[in-house]
Amino acid sequence: MSALFLDQLINFFNGSIVHFTSFEAFKSIYEDKAIKPNIDAKYSSPFGRYKPYFASKGCVSFFDFRELEKSTGNVGSCNPITILNQTGRLVALELSKTKYSSLISWEDCKIHGLNGCNIVPNLEVGFRGDVSLGDISKICVITKPKVYSARLQIKILS
Questions:
Q1: Domains in the chain, start-ordered, CATH in brackets?
Q2: What is the SS3 string spanning the chain?
Q3: Whole-prediction pTM value?
Q4: pLDDT tens across 4-54, in order?
């Protein structure tokens, strides 16, 4: 079922750049009016204890779904469905296209080295510093169905 849910998410956000978070973490984002980089692992991660490359650079990580044929094969352990399976819902924040030029490619690590950090090739991109909610074009709450169903429930908040 997780693979089916992942396919639905990828198809829904096809062509977009998205930050996924838990509903609990979204409450802090909403209060702060920004997504903040997870420097020093201040915020818990549903993806386990690892050292994210972009966080080490003071960036917020996003999933880049602009080129699906390159990106989807690399979801692996950073699968956003992990959040959905743990909590029953997740929040997706879609980055405004006007901010795409500010993104740092995953290929940055080829120049600067990983230095013990992890990155998801062809999928993960970074945005240096805080991402204002004003730079988010769409916020969606995604809920796992309560009964056996093949469809995620996606509610667009903005």
A1: 2-156 (3.20.170.20)
A2: CHHHHHHHHHHHCCCCEEEEEEHHHHHHHHHHCEECCCHHHCCCCCCCCCCEHHHHCCEEEEEECCCHHHHHHHCHHHCCHHHHHHHCEEEEEEECHHHHHHEECCCHHHHHCCCCCECCCCCEEEEECCEEHHHEEEEEEEECCCCCCCCCEEEECC
A3: 0.87
A4: 788 888 889 999 999 999 999 999 999 999 999 987 666 666 655 567 888
